[in-house]
Amino acid sequence: MQLGAPFVERSARPQIEGALSDTRVVILQGARQVGKSTLASAIAADRPSRFVTLDDEEHRKAALDDPGAFVETDDLLVIDEVQRAPSLLLAIKASVATGMVVPAATS
Length: 107
What we know:
alpha/beta
């Protein structure tokens, strides 16, 4: 992996942005080390958002302690490594059911 390498525009970006325009939950899933987190971060940078990674122990603990509060937001919430806190998926589902704005996730 080359540090400081230029960002490579991904062909999936228009599809993800289109999905975000009319879908409340978008999951970006794929093989390891293909640029999912980088792409999600770039998309989030273009709009009001919060990007968190569950590789961070503090974020993971907050997500596990109170999944419902963790996903509450009016902005786009990108949760990187969402598989590290499976209970978040039920919290996201509940958020959709109650009409809250909910996150995009990468795994």
